[in-house]
Design a protein that fits this description.
Number of domains: 1
Shape: elongated
Helix content: over 70%
Number of helices: 5
Order of helices and strands: HHHHH
Distance between the termini: 11 Å
Number of strands: 0
Length: 154
């Protein structure tokens, strides 16, 4: 297996794994967004330990960047890989702008401050937007892999 093939594989797998938690958040949103405070705090407890998915996200960022560099000037495939890199990177920015502050203000949803509804909206919408961006990143890295074909980049 070539280095470029390995880079494709890692970028695809890590981006797909990053889609797992964000997809779960996306599809849970309609059922959670209207819950009363006590129920919402109870439901939020299911996410304990999910912070370890940050490792996957960092891996996806690195793998997509490496793939973009490997595919430089290969029939435009580097643009797709670069797009995937930027989209996954954007999810990290959204996390730190909207999701992380909500986690901090609520002690990871152990407590509900006075403005918990606003924080819930930031948390839920931030995760939903990240799900869409991660899905688009997966599409982009898939297109990068398809665009190059099995031997075109060698």
């Amino acid at each position: 297996m070539t280095l470029t093939t390995t880079a494709k594989f890692l970028a695809l797998v890590l981006t797909a794994l990053a889609l797992v938690p964000s997809g779960a958040h996306f599809f849970a949103l309609p059922n959670k967004i209207g819950l009363p405070e006590a129920d919402y705090l109870t439901v939020q407890a299911i996410y304990r330990g999910w912070d370890l998915f940050g490792i996957v996200l960092v891996g996806a960022i690195g793998a997509n960047l490496f793939l973009a560099l490997r595919l430089r000037r290969v029939g435009g495939a580097d643009w797709y890989a670069s797009g995937a890199f930027l989209l996954v990177l954007a999810t990290l920015a959204i996390f730190f702008v909207w999701v992380y502050p909500a986690n901090e203000a609520t002690a990871n949803w152990e407590t509900a401050p006075e403005r918990w509804r606003e924080l819930r909206m930031h948390w839920e919408v931030g995760h939903a937007v990240n799900a869409v961006l991660t899905f688009l990143a997966f599409c982009m890295v898939s297109l990068a892999c398809i665009r190059t074909g099995p031997r075109r980049e060698e």
